[in-house]
Specification:
seven-stranded mixed β-sheet, binds adenosine-5'-diphosphate, about 475 residues, alpha/beta, Ald_DH_N
Length: about 475
């Protein structure tokens, strides 16, 4: 008999208790998978367009209930209202709309080339659903990741088991939204629990797993899935570089660095975590950036004036402190910030750091906080080489008026996405594929590739009788 574990969920800032959850038992997991497998059989009766029509009901519900949803997101994450609305709610609306408009075309059966040696025959490709897929999510974008993965998987014809992070389960909210369509409610299930629950869900043999989270957990999951040969797409974080050449508009580009490094208090896998500035504008750029960092208001989301919200997880705050202290002790200059602020101990000041060397944790490990180490460079070749020497490769940005140069650098960077003269924009466009390389993971979410990742292609060759 498995011991049921209770999980206490608290307000991210005040730590006042919100509710308790019971870890899902092995028996419950098995019953859930049986229900999802049966729901998948039912789903096969519907066309892609019909499933999109159901997702439209969810989209409408999110739009109509945006204030209530934003309040729940802020409560459990401590993020600002701007972060909740822009990156979570608007991001979901954009994504669902794009999927509804494009999935029927992307998932359509195709007739493809038949060679002369097979003359008279016809070749077709069907994009079939996988079955029951498992989605495991982290705490930094608990709404965006939940809704986009669940709905894309459903549109592609799968039933879905979704496990939110135990830190931000938003208990009941996702189910309430899914109620907008009885068909979706029947095919998409939310399960609560910790890593123990996640392991039970994997053991139930989903047809594919979509994991977003830390490298360490991703590795554990991949090992467990490998034993059962379950395919897995993983998105594991980053150490994204922003590369600024000498010909940029400094005001506009520093504003980009502020947004890139500090949105969601830096708790984004695509946060700018390394800023490379050309030697000839370095001093001016850093002075302007410091002024912008100093002008930011760090506060709770419901205070209205907040630019930077809380650090959701205490263990994450410890990592931020450790990285900054390590840099300080090895000779880095903390130009501004570098400490916790506020009475609750949940906020960290926007922190700008120079004189960072390769041996510092800040230079190589993911910090996932409102910190920005700045490096100098003098040539295009040098910045490509040094910035590519990262264990990670999720996304990057290149800033220059010379678009040929920006494109050349974008092509040379080892990562999954590059924004040119802007930052973190690629993942804001649901038509673009999202995902990384190296330790940032593999597989692509969003775009046509993201939808096709929820399918298995079947080859058909038709001959005459
Ligand atoms: P993060 O700190 O980014 O949330 P984690 O990797 O710790 O990163 O957690 C991401 C998700 O993975 C959470 O939903 C967590 O419960 C889940 N998880 C934890 N342990 C495992 C495991 N062994 N296998 C699969 N998922 C796990």
């Amino acid at each position: 008999m498995n011991q049921a574990v209770a999980i206490n969920v608290n307000d991210a800032i005040t730590e006042s208790p919100l509710y308790n959850l019971q870890e899902t038992s092995e028996e419950q997991v098995n019953a859930l998978f049986a229900a999802c497998r049966s729901a998948h059989q039912d789903l096969r009766k519907y066309t892609v367009a019909e499933r999109c029509h159901e997702v439209h009901k969810v989209l409408d519900y999110v739009l109509q209930n945006r204030d209530h949803i934003a309040a729940r997101i802020c409560e459990e994450t401590g993020k600002t209202l701007t972060d909740a609305v822009v990156s979570e709610i608007l991001g979901v609306l954009d994504n669902l709309e794009w999927n509804i408009d494009n999935a029927p075309k992307i998932l359509k059966d195709q007739t493809v080339h038949t060679p002369i040696t097979l003359m008279g025959k016809k070749s077709r490709v069907y994009h079939e659903s996988l079955g029951t897929v498992l989605v495991i999510a982290p705490w930094n974008y608990p709404f965006h990741i939940a809704m986009t993965f669940m709905m894309s998987a459903f549109i592609a014809g799968n039933s879905v088991v979704f496990k939110p992070s135990e830190l931000t389960p938003m208990q009941g909210l996702l189910e309430e939204i899914l109620e907008a369509s009885p068909l979706i409610r029947n095919s998409v299930k939310v399960v609560y629990g910790t890593g123990v629950t996640a392991q039970r869900l994997v053991a139930a043999r989903p047809d594919k797993i979509f994991f977003t989270g830390s490298c360490a957990t991703g590795r554990k999951l991949l090992k467990q899935a490998a034993d059962m040969l379950i395919p897995v797409d993983v998105e594991l974080g980053g150490k994204d570089q922003m590369i600024v050449f000498e010909d940029v508009n400094i005001k506009r580009t520093t504003a980009g660095a502020v947004w890139g490094a500090l949105t969601n208090a830096g708790q984004s896998c695509t946060s700018v975590e390394r800023l490379y500035v050309h030697d000839s504008i370095y001093d001016e750029f850093v002075t302007e950036l410091k002024a912008q960092f100093d002008a930011l208001v760090v506060n709770a989301g419901d205070k209205g004036d907040a630019d930077i919200g809380a650090i959701t997880a205490d263990f994450q705050l410890d990592i931020i402190k450790r990285h900054v202290e390590d840099a300080r002790s090895k000779g880095a200059t903390i130009l501004t910030g570098g400490m916790v602020t506020g009475d609750q101990g949940k906020f960290y000041l926007p922190t700008l750091i120079t004189d960072v060397t390769d041996d510092m944790l800040l230079a190589s490990e993911e910090t996932f906080g409102p910190t920005l180490p700045v490096f100098r460079f003098s040539t295009e070749k040098e910045v490509i080489e040094t910035s590519n020497q990262s264990e990670f490769g999720l996304s990057a940005s290149v800033w220059s008026k010379d678009l040929d140069r920006a494109d050349r650098v974008a092509r040379a960077l080892v990562c999954g996405a590059v924004s040119i003269n802007n930052v973190m924009l690629t993942e804001g466009n649901p038509a673009l594929p999202f995902g990384g390389t190296r330790s940032s993971g593999f597989g692509r979410a969003k775009g046509a590739e993201g939808l096709l990742a929820f399918t298995r292609s079947k080859a058909i060759l038709i001959d005459k009788q």
